[in-house]
Specification:
single chain, alpha/beta, five-stranded mixed sheet, binds zinc ion, binds 5'-O-[(R)-(carboxyoxy)(hydroxy)phosphoryl]adenosine, globular, 10 strands
C-alpha cells in the first residue's frame, strides 16, 4: 500500500510517499520545504505569507517527492492530506491540491488530523506498529498544542488534558522573544541554556560549604559555581493540580517581569550571563510540568507505553529527562527521531495507513479544511 501524503498546516510545505511492508513503515520519499527563515524576519508566522509560499511550492514539492520515490501517480494507492487543525489559509492549499489530485487520478482520499500525525510520528522511524502495548498515554507538544491523549488503540483516542492557554512551544517562542533570542524560540532557548556550565557541585547548595571548597578552585571553576549560585526560580503552573491540564501563560508573564526587572537593574555584561540561566530555568519549568503530568496520567490509566510527538519533542533535555524518568518507572517510551518531530508529511502518511485499512475515505467534493478540528 503506497500513500502520497501532503502537509501544509502551518509554515512547512511537505509531501511524502509512505508504504507499509509487513507492519513497518517506510518513507520512500520525504520532502519538506520550510519557510522558517522568511517568518523569522517578522518574529513569528505571518499567515498570508505562509499561504502564498505554499501555493508557489506545493506542486514542485509533490513532483519532487514522486521523483525521489521513483514513482508516478499511477503507483500511488491513496492520497492523504492534513485537513486541520492549523492556519486556515495554509491548510486550504494542501487540501484543495489533494482533492484535485484524488479526483483527477481517481484515488481514494483520506483526511488526517495534524495531531494524530504527530502522535504517530514515532512509527515513521520503522518502529513496528505491533510493538506498542496499549493503553498508552500520548503527549503531543507543538507550537499550537499541548495535549495528553489516552490511546486505547490505533484510531481510538480520548483527550484527557490540554493547555488552558498557551501551548508549550508557544511559551518557548514567546520567552525567547522576551530574552531577545529570535524565532523559533524552542531551539534558541535550548541552545542558550546549554551555555550554562554545569556545576561540579550539582548537589551542593551555594552555602558556606561550597564557598569553602571554592577557595581551592581555579578561576574557571569559581565562575561555574557562581553561575550556579545565581539561581533563578520560575513557577511551574498547575504542577500539582488535580487534573491533566496545563497552563503556561503565567510562566511567560513571570519571565517577562523577571527579565524587565533584570534589564532595569543589571549591566549589559551581567545580562549576558543571566540570559543562559534564565533560558535553562524556562526550559526546566516546562519540562517539569510536561513530565509530571504525563507520568501522573500514565499511572492513573495504567499505561503500558508513553508516546511523545510534536515539535517540542526535538528538545534534547526533554528527551533525556523523559528517558530517565520512564526508565526508573519501567514504562516503555516511544518518541520520533529528531527530523520527524517537526511538521512533515511522513507522519500524515503513517496515520493515513490506519485510516485506509479502516476504509475511512472522504469525497473530494465534500472535504473542507478545518482549522479547529479536534482529534477526539
Ligand atoms: O510541531 P511543530 O513543528 O509545529 C506545530 O504544529 O506547531 O512545532 C513547532 C514548535 C515551535 O513552537 C518551536 O519553538 C518548538 O516546536 N520547538 C522546540 C524545539 N524545536 C522546535 N521547542 C523546544 N525545544 C526544541 N529544540
Ligand atoms: Zn505540528
Amino acid at each position: 500500500m503506497k500513500i502520497l501524503s501532503i502537509e501544509t498546516s502551518c509554515d512547512e510545505t511537505a509531501a511524502a510517499v509512505v508504504e507499509n511492508k509487513r507492519g513497518e513503515f517506510n518513507a520512500c520519499s520525504n520532502v519538506v520545504s520550510s519557510q522558517i527563515k522568511i517568518h523569522a524576519q517578522y518574529g513569528g508566522i505571518v499567515p498570508e505569507v505562509a499561504a502564498r509560499l505554499h501555493i508557489e511550492k506545493i506542486i514542485l514539492i509533490i513532483n519532487q517527492t514522486l521523483k525521489d520515490a521513483k514513482m508516478t501517480l499511477d503507483n500511488i494507492d491513496y492520497i492523504a492530506v492534513c485537513a486541520g487543525p492549523g492556519l486556515i489559509s495554509s491548510l486550504m492549499v494542501g487540501v484543495e491540491t489533494a482533492k484535485a489530485l484524488a479526483f483527477a487520478c481517481k484515488k481514494p482520499l483520506i483526511k488526517i488530523n495534524h495531531l494524530e500525525g504527530h502522535l504517530l510520528s514515532f512509527l515513521s522511524d520503522k518502529t513496528p506498529a505491533r510493538q506498542i502495548r496499549f493503553p498508552a498515554i500520548g503527549l503531543v507538544v507543538s507550537g499550537g498544542h499541548t495535549q495528553l491523549i489516552l490511546v486505547k488503540n490505533y484510531l481510538d483516542y480520548k483527550l484527557i488534558g490540554e493547555t488552558c492557554d498557551d501551548a508549550a512551544g508557544e511559551t518557548f517562542d514567546k520567552a525567547a522573544k522576551i530574552l531577545g533570542l529570535g524565532y523559533p524560540g524552542g531551539p534558541a532557548i535550548s541552545a542558550c541554556a546549554e551555555k550554562v556550565q554545569s556545576s561540579p557541585f550539582e548537589n551542593l547548595r551555594v552555602t558556606k560549604d561550597a564557598f569553602f571548597v571554592m577557595l581551592r578552585l581555579s578561576k574557571h571553576d569559581k565562575k561555574r559555581i557562581t553561575d550556579y549560585g545565581l539561581r533563578i526560580s520560575l513557577p511551574r503552573p498547575m504542577l500539582h493540580s488535580n487534573d491533566f491540564d496545563f497552563s503556561f501563560a503565567g510562566l511567560k508573564t513571570a519571565v517577562l517581569y523577571a527579565w524587565n526587572d533584570f534589564q532595569k537593574r543589571r549591566k549589559a555584561t551581567e545580562l549576558s550571563r543571566l540570559r543562559p540561566l534564565m533560558a535553562k530555568e524556562i526550559q526546566q519549568a516546562i519540562i517539569d510540568v510536561l513530565i509530571a503530568k504525563t507520568l501522573k496520567a500514565a499511572t492513573k490509566f495504567k499505561a503500558k507505553t508513553i508516546i511523545l510527538g510534536g515539535g517540542v519533542t526535538a528538545n534534547e533535555e526533554l528527551r533525556r529527562q523523559f528517558i530517565k524518568k520512564t526508565d526508573l518507572k519501567k514504562i516503555k517510551l516511544v518518541l520520533p527521531s529528531i527530523p520527524m518531530t517537526g511538521d512533515n508529511a511522513v507522519m500524515i502518511g503513517v496515520a493515513a495507513h490506519f485510516h485506509a485499512k479502516a476504509k475511512n475515505f472522504v469525497s473530494p467534493f465534500k472535504l473542507r479544511a478545518n482549522p479547529e478540528w479536534e482529534l477526539t
